[in-house]
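WARN retry 2 of 3 for item q-0093 after timeout on previous attempt; input resubmitted unchanged.
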Amino acid sequence: MRFVTFESEGLPKLGVRLGDEVVDLSKADPSLPNTLLAVLEADNGIFEEAKIAAESARERLPVESIKFFPVIPRPPKIICIGLNYAAHAAEGGHDKPNYPSFFMRGATSLTGHKQPIIKPKISETLDYEAELVAVIGKRSDRHMSREETLDLVAGYSMFNEASVREWQRKTQQYCIGKNFDNTGAFGPDFITADEVPPGGAGLTIQSRLNGQLMQNDNTSNMMFDIAEALMLLTQCLTLEPGDILVSGTPSGVGHARQPPVWMRNGDTIEVEIEGLGVLQNPIIDEE
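OK item q-0093 returned
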């Protein structure tokens, strides 16, 4: 089952995607939660209720007609992993890490499918990063085992973690280069976990810049897979419904190329993950 968050009357609305059409869930059944976060916080039976309501709805919108918001416009926590594919670590001159390079993003850094990624005027070094997202649907216990953690995952999505490399390297922390406004594309769909292989493993992951293939790998090549990363996170913090784990990018990023390839005004960047879809964004200059 697929959910999208889209604009209606200036506000984010929750939709159920049925092929090339979207049902506004607030119109199909006003008694159901009207945000994906609220759906995740409710009982799992809400998924089935939403599916029944959407399939019986007469009013449907063409996908092409809607304006996408990030799947969850303001996740409680946005937890990211750097250097999670061996080839990507190597192209940046790093050894295989013994522990994931966790860092956080803020909600103001997010943007939706087909919405602009904004190249900041203070730097030319805007890079692309195709990533798989795991969306948390249950509150975690502390010190969960690897075998338990995938039960926390309600579904999956995609992310383009556009990074301002120059600012990323100004300090020992990645944070500032990963949090420029409107640089983290998130979407277009939330796909429930029952439609994706456990842990999102075994899926081809790619990025294309202006149609040219830039990254091409498989999610099974993560050094810290979704289950292990969540296990490690529960050792130190509580995961909550709506938290997202952005799980790292493969090799082929722009800064590692000779000469470097940066995203510029007028470019189009796409992230595709097998079975999940395509996340597309234009690049525009900051005004």
